[in-house]
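Model: Ready when you are.
Researcher: Fold this.
Model:
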Amino acid sequence: MTKYYIFRHGQTFNSKNHVPYPEDNFPIEILPESIPVLEKLAVYLKNIPSDYNVSSEYVRCQQSVKVMTEISGLYFDNESRLNEFDKGSFEEFNKRIESFLNDLNQKNYKTVVICTHGAVVAGLKNILLGKNFDETKLRDFPDTGVLICIEGQKIEEINFNPT
């Protein structure tokens, strides 16, 4: 059984201020103040042996995994199916996530680390837990700085944000 460690990219101006992303949000960058949270998350992941690490291609995810790699030594592949849900239908988005998970299941990985976006986290979480994933659950994801650990039907959230 695969254990998944899933986290959102570092905080952006949009996520911090609850402002919708513009149509072209590929180049949106993380805020410098989100780096210490990512560093704490990276220290935690450094002690987790993983078989596969993968990230969205968007700039904010690439910046986040760069911090991860510098601290944890984990290297991340890029995966377009983990990109933000900003174009196309919900059905296409859902199929893209299911396709990604089906490919992972064929690899028999024990541990996978994923860096992606809120709606993708919601999809991964609901599908992995065997729940129905529909458009009403697109916001079913934690804040940036929270790591979700899923194994079978068990889910744990670890918050690396300052308290």
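Researcher: Now this one.
Model:
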Amino acid sequence: MAKQQSEKPEYILEMRNISKEFPGVKALDNVNLNIRPGTVHSLMGENGAGKSTLMKCLFGIYKQDSGEIHLEGKKVYFSNPAEALNNHVSMVHQELNQVLYRSVMENVWLGRYPMKGLFVDHEKMYQDTQKIFEELEIDVDPRAKTGSLSVSQKQMIEIAKAVSYDSKIIVMDEPTSSLTEKEVQHLFNIIEKLIKRNTSIIYISHKMEEILKISHEVTVMRDGKYIDTKDAHSLTTDMIIKMMVGRELTNRYPEREVKPGKILMQVEGLSTQFPAFKDVSFTVRQGEVLGIAGLVGSKRTELLETLFGIRSKKEGKITLNAREIDNSSPFNAIRNGFALMTEERRTDGIYEELSVGFNLTISNLISYQNKNRLLNGSLMQKDSKKMIDAMNIKTLSEKTIIGNLSGGNQQKVILGRWLLTNPDVLLLDEPTRGIDVGAKYEIYQLINELAAQGKSIIIVSSEMPELLGICDQILVMSNGRQAAILDTAKTSQEEIMTCSAKYM
């Protein structure tokens, strides 16, 4: 009997027959997940497969309708994230929720500041933060304002925060979606250190190459159901895709048959009012897809924001259909036929607590007004339903709260919103970030269809294979300067990387 008590359980975490239902949607249907100590266990599936919902049940954000959770052999139930954290289970969310106007160290120790009597011990907080940063090789000043950091730095701060709880299990939801290749390798080094400390990592990602590189085991979900768990070393990319989508997916990128037409837009000597980028020039033809590549900090997003009027230009001009235009504000840009899908969909892309229909029609309200400036509700509903069908958005109806949709379906709603404005130039900032391989293919097909209609599309992406797979040309930015414009058919990832580092 004593021998049995001394034996450690095979799994540090067991989630048994977990089910969760939302109004009209069965998000989880008797799902099982078993995690071994000191391993990386990847959780894969298309958007809407139930991965994030399962992890939210573990972390105490949702309450499962049925099923049990066992941690180190003991049955547990966390009614909120604080209880999960106190039991050394932490989660790094894909959508970061940080107090941007407070310091980095305050965000790390939020809700548990070290005290000296009645006052916060800022020196101890600094030293404790610095110690974790040194261990994880994170080069960020603990006293810096969180809002001043890049998205990738904020991601690292969240990982450091998870480590600060002395976590036995860390859930990482799309942790590399905003990281460069160098930063991804840094993250993998951190994960390797955590594994040596016997920490278990539950890793959610759509990037097949990453999964196969760092995982010990892989569990695949589909439509809220458990499909299978396999040893990572026995899997290939094609095998994972087949398990995820339930069918063969022979091509990652649809073939493009569109031949670009006449020049639609020309940008000459564009520079921003503030020192972000300078002297950018390029042309985009009707039906052309122009990619923008570059490392974090290269000012790719700033370029899109300037084209859309979010940032003021200092010099240069933008010509559309041989006519100079003034995109001095987003309102003017929309009137001139521009649309922008932002990188951070939850922060500045969606109205999370409002309906899918509202989110689809909000940018096109003028077209729904009658002569008395009243909105035509039936027409808005008709357009919403049409776009839901056209974009294959998985939702019960246009009245569903958009925050209840998966990330990929939220992305489709944002794209559908802008298509309702009938733009000539579509600006897409990381349009497939955090989206599964099946949904990515659908987005790529939509891009091809829009190009076939004669629209010009400009895409910022951190994934070079994606740029090479869907673009006609690639503009490479390096430290705020234009490094090159490359013909996709004649270039390579190596050349893009070389150009990206040109002015570093």
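Researcher: Key takeaway?
Model: The chain has two domains: 8-245, 263-500.
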